């Protein structure tokens, strides 16, 4: 791959301690991994290094811990899930630095694999703090980044380590960049983007540039509510970041200036509780009750989105249109996914979708294999699409 050092140029790893950044931020339901795609995608890098005699030390984050260690966000169960996917033992150390980490690493034999606890249990990780970088780096001889889906974060484990250790792109990092370049490097127009999901504050800003790259931006899921509220539509108790209304308004102005259509829900499926099979009703978007939450976009919105898909030559999609983990609030996401998959199979659409939950949603709809390309990345993929340099990718350039 041009400009990057990859596993093809890493040389002998026999007996070396290789710190491998992976994205194990996988969807979990009732304590079980509900979609293992991200683990499956990093498996080739892990097994290749292990087969070549490296001590494979996995670094990953899980969720967004607010105040240090949080048992609910421990990676320990994910070590077991990783072991099941790759079919070999994966040890676990209860901290990513300090004695727990160094003792676990000292006990490793060549070819062993150990996962260190959630890097975000240390606030210094997200600050890319040099002292923390030195502590993490002390456990490795080489660094491999296989977490394209976290490459938009300039954190110690995604960026800092590459500054202080010989650094290489893993197989998935390499494959993601090559596939995105191939599918979207010069996209056929019209390009339609669907952005939904729940990570409003971390994805809203990038829409400001995205509207200059696409012909239509369909906004669904939790993301839509902030836009609806910004234009004065009452969204009741829906997930909504009211303090970002001004940014949402600015994005709508930028879109108008760029000639990008903004497509917002015209109806919604509303419930009073965030749980499966909660009593629900479909209402016009102007009629959301004060005590109701929009948990899915409604059928009229789905029809409008599918019309846009019919007009598109290229579709990019991150973020489910509703709370797809909870029936029946998966209906819009499933219907739209099936529609895009059918157009792709018919040779009428290039469809690229990504994101931990988006991939889970496409698998739930049974159509992930019918998309042109499914990335493990959501935010990173959109930032790549936006034309931004990703810190975790840039630092790997030779
Ligand atoms: N209307 C909604 N209200 C609350 N949560 C929603 C809504 N629509 C989607 N979601 C949630 O968004 C989450 C996925 O968002 P996000 O993390 O941004 O996607 P991805 O992981 O694909 O990038 C899912 O857990 C889903 O339940
Ligand atoms: O799940 C992720 O991103 P995504 O939800 O955009 O797909 C990545 O693991 C990054 O997580 P973060 O958005 O908490 O930094």
Keywords:
15 helices, globular, six-stranded parallel β-sheet, binds 1,3-bisphosphoglyceric acid, 398 residues, Rossmann fold, binds adenosine-5'-diphosphate, 2 domains, alpha/beta
Overview of the structural elements:
By secondary structure, the protein is an alpha/beta fold. It folds into 2 domains: 7-171, 3-Layer(aba) Sandwich (Rossmann fold), CATH 3.40.50; 187-386, Rossmann fold (3-Layer(aba) Sandwich). It is built from 15 helices and 17 strands. It has helices spanning 37-51, 76-86, 98-106, 123-127, 130-137, 156-164, 171-184, 200-210, 221-230, 245-258, 299-311, 331-345, 356-365, 379-386, 391-394; strands spanning 17-21, 28-29, 32-33, 55-59, 91-93, 113-116, 142-145, 167-169, 191-195, 216-219, 261-263, 267-271, 280-284, 293-297, 314-318, 350-354, 373-375. It has a 6-stranded parallel β-sheet, with helices on both faces. Strands 11-10-9-15-16-17 form a 6-stranded parallel β-sheet, with helices on both faces. Helix 6 (156-164) links the parallel strand 7 and strand 8 (167-169). The chain is globular and about 60 Å long. The mean pLDDT is 97. Bound molecules: adenosine-5'-diphosphate and 1,3-bisphosphoglyceric acid. 1,3-bisphosphoglyceric acid is lined by residues 23, 25, 64, 149-150, 153, 199, 202, 355-356, 377-379. 1,3-bisphosphoglyceric acid (X15) is lined by residues 23, 25, 64, 149-150, 153, 199, 202, 355-356, 377-379. (2R)-3-phosphoglycerate binds at residues 38, 120, 153. One of its GO terms (molecular function) is ATP binding. Substrate binds at residues 23-25, 38, 61-64, 120, 153. InterPro entries: Phosphoglycerate_kinase (IPR001576), Phosphoglycerate_kinase_CS (IPR015911), Phosphoglycerate_kinase_N (IPR015824), Phosphoglycerate_kinase_sf (IPR036043). This is Phosphoglycerate kinase.
């Amino acid at each position: 791959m041009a400009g990057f050092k990859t596993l093809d140029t890493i040389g002998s790893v026999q007996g070396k301690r290789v710190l491998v950044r992976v994205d194990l931020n996988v969807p979990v339901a009732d304590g079980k991994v509900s979609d293992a795609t991200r683990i499956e995608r990093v498996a080739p890098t892990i097994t290749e290094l292990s087969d070549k005699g490296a001590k494979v030390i996995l670094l990953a984050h899980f969720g967004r811990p607010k105040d240090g260690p949080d048992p609910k966000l421990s990676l320990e169960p994910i070590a077991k899930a990783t072991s099941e996917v790759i079919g070999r033992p994966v040890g676990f150390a209860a901290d990513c630095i300090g004695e727990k980490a160094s003792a676990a690493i000292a006990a490793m034999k060549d070819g062993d694999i150990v996962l260190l606890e959630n890097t975000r249990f240390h606030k210094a990780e997200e600050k890319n703090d040099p002292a923390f970088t030195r502590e993490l780096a002390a456990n490795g001889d080489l660094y491999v980044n296989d977490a394209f889906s976290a490459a938009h974060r300039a954190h110690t484990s995604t960026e800092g380590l590459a500054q202080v250790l010989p650094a290489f792109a893993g197989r998935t990092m390499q494959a993601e960049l090559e596939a995105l370049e191939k599918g979207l490097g010069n996209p056929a127009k019209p390009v339609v983007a669907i952005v939904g999901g729940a990570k409003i504050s971390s994805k809203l800003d990038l829409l400001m540039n995205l509207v200059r790259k696409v012909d239509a931006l369909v906004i669904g899921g939790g993301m839509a509510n902030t836009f609806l509220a910004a234009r004065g539509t009452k969204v009741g108790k829906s997930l909504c970041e009211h303090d970002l209304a001004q940014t949402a308004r600015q994005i709508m102005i930028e879109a108008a200036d760029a000639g990008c259509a903004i497509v917002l829900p015209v109806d919604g499926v509303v419930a009073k509780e965030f749980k499966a099979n909660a009593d629900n009703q479909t209402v016009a978007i102007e009629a959301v009750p004060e005590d109701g939450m929009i948990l899915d976009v409604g059928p009229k919105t789905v029809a409008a989105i599918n019309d846009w898909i019919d007009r598109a030559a290229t579709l990019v999609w991150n973020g489910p249109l509703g709370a797809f983990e909870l029936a029946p609030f998966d209906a819009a996401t499933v219907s739209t996914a099936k529609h895009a998959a059918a157009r792709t199979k018919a040779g009428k659409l290039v469809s690229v979708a990504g994101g931990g939950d988006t991939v889970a949603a496409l698998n739930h709809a049974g159509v992930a294999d019918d998309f042109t390309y499914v990335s493990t990345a959501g935010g990173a993929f959109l930032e790549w699409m936006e034309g931004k340099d990703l810190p975790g990718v840039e630092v790997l350039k030779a």
